[in-house]
Write a structure and sequence with these properties.
By secondary structure, this protein is α+β, with helices and mostly antiparallel strands. Among the domains are: about 120 residues, no CATH class; about 110 residues, Histidine kinase-like ATPase, C-terminal domain (Heat Shock Protein 90), CATH 3.30.565. The protein is built from 9 helices and 7 strands; from the N terminus they run ααααααβαββαββαββ. The strands form 2 sheets. A 5-stranded mixed β-sheet has the order 2-4-5-7-6, covered by helices on one side. Strands 1-3 form a two-stranded antiparallel sheet.
Length: about 325
């Protein structure tokens, strides 16, 4: 449901509520004082409703912060009482010449006396807020299921061409081996890359050594393409550790550096470092920016990997991206 429709429903509901209320009041022709007191009461009710609906519940109920939520509900009770007090004990005596409570009544008594009127609208606000949130989440889940089904179908369809290409690469390797060792090695690296991306994993994870090998093969292809003017330093220090990580989570940073960085100047090599310390993976990639246009790219690699990190390692990773006019550097830390 669009925001405009939600606003329309709220306006319509309060209009009907007020029309129903004042229809009976007007029929009974109450005195002017009762009408004004009823007006201030309704202002306090509606204001408190939206104070909870728009501020308290979205900030504290969704995050399940019980202490802040309790404090927010208490503040709503105080807000209701102060709202009435402002109208009935401050403005009305000046504008209309009467007040609702005696002057001797304390603020504390005023707050407790108004709890009876405030609580129903605080509860009503919670009911409508969570009901609306339930429908929103249900609609999101249905949309995600539809997208997942479409993605699965597209993935199954996409498997035909990659598998055919992978088999073709193996055949081309057998043809290239007697003629050019360099070409044969390039085909092997390309075939290994393709096999790795096509491989399915039951738990959605791969061993870190497999990811390291994948990066090595990727760099090897670039080295064949740009050799001898190709300067990349790739160091690994995992000290015998071989934990599992999400596949293809690191390659986007390497791909970005090789596509958009300087790789043909020995004084400005691309530096790629991967290490594990205290059960934490640390991955850094730094490169000098190149003004040359190497390849046309959609520019969504880093955006996608950031989304994947937020989904797969939410609260367990830190990604720092630092860049200026000359240099681009990333630091990724993942708690394993």
């Amino acid at each position: 449901m669009s925001r405009s429709k939600i606003i329309f429903i709220h306006i319509l509901s309060w209009t009907l509520f007020l029309a129903y209320t004042y229809f009976f009041w007007l029929n009974e022709t109450p005195d002017r004082q009762i009408l004004w007191l009823n007006f201030s009461m309704n202002v306090a009710k509606i204001s408190t409703f939206y104070y909870c609906y728009s501020f308290i519940y979205p900030r504290f109920a969704i995050n399940r912060n019980k202490i802040f939520l309790a404090g927010g509900i208490l503040s709503a009770c105080i807000f209701f009482a102060l709202c009435r007090y402002g109208w009935e004990e401050v403005l009305y005596p000046v504008w209309l010449g009467f007040r609702n409570y005696d002057e001797e009544v304390s603020i504390l008594y005023y707050i407790f006396d108004n709890l009876y009127y405030a609580i129903p609208y605080i509860v009503l606000s919670a009911a409508i807020f969570f009901l609306h949130r339930h429908f929103v989440l249900e609609r999101m889940n249905l949309r995600l299921k539809e997208e997942a089904g479409k993605a699965e179908l597209a993935f199954l369809r996409s498997q035909i061409n990659p598998h055919f290409l992978y088999n073709s690469l193996n055949y081309m390797y057998s043809l290239a081996l007697p003629k050019s060792q360099q070409l044969a090695d390039a085909l092997v690296s390309l075939a290994d890359l393709m096999r790795y991306t096509l491989k399915e994993h039951k738990d959605g994870l791969v061993y870190l050594e497999d990811e390291i090998t994948y990066i090595q093969n990727y760099i090897a292809l670039f080295r064949i393409r740009f050799s001898p003017q190709f300067y990349v330093n790739y160091t690994v220090d995992i000290k015998g550790n071989n934990p599992k990580i999400a596949p293809l989570i690191l390659i986007a940073f390497v791909e970005n550096a090789l596509k958009h960085g300087i790789i043909d100047q020995p004084e400005y090599p691309v530096n790629i470092d991967l290490s594990i310390r205290n059960n934490e993976l640390e991955f850094t990639v730094s490169n000098r920016k190149s003004n040359k246009r190497k390849e046309v790219s959609g520019g969504i690699g880093l955006v996608n990997v950031q989304k994947r990190l937020n989904l797969l390692y939410n609260g367990c990773h830190r990604l720092d991206i630092r860049q200026d006019q000359k240099e681009f550097c990333i630091l990724l830390k993942i708690t394993l």
